[in-house]
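Narrative summary of target 7.
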Amino acid sequence: MNDPARILVLEDDSIMLELLCEALEGAGYEARGASRPAQAVELSRQIPFELVISDIRMAGPTDGLGAIAGIKKFQPNVKVVMITGYASDDCPRRAIELQVDDYVHKPFRVPTMLDVVRRVLARRGGILSPFLSLRNLLTAPLRLMEQSNSRRIQHLVGLLEQEKQKVIKGFFVAIRSKAISKSAALDTWDQLERLEQQSQRLSVQPSEAAVQAVGSGYRKIFERIGYFEKTGHVASASPRQSGQVSRPGFGLLVDQIHAGQVGLEELIQLLTVRLEPQRQPELSGTLLELYRGLTA
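Modeled conformation, tokenized:
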């Protein structure tokens, strides 16, 4: 039997802190509470946590995101769920840069938070492992290469997978935090689909230059997400081309992400099946309906 996941809750509202800790304990987790950022950082120095839940707004000079930055110095791979009750132009960008895993708006129901916790902790094995299939995709062609070339490309592929994970998480949090418009999110989705098609072609010619080109593409997407978030940019509403996702269907998907009905895993599933339609049977009934809306 596995030990219960250890969760740190940072919240300066004592009533909310107690409520969350009690709910987590009741759900079978081991919860520790902190009412100040400095206390949370010190606890993270002493105790390994699998997840940190933190409010953004804090009394004092350091807010919740500042605390997360401190915590990640000791536990760089800890998963993070941010809570916010107010709009800020700065917080979503910082959350994306810190690679937080989810972003929950107040007011929320405790069962909703427990569902978010369950989803985030379910990523223990690597959140994008089914999506980051480049190593498997390149196994056969790399065997045919000279060993030193194969090692260099394997190293680059590892870096590419990290870049890909950073972009997909950032894209999800940008939508979840409502930091980018629907049209900007749609523009980003189109670019992700194009880049994924380029990634799949690496199996034909997995050269260093080709892998680096895909990695550069992902870095540009991440920069573009930051541009949309910073400027509030609304992308072009030009007519959709054949094969692209439908605007109404994508708008419904974004609404479902905002509502917490679609998480990061489901977003990845939809993007995967868009590229590999033969995998439709893997989708749940709800996701299948969203997929059909995207392809309508």
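The first helix runs from residue 14 to 26.
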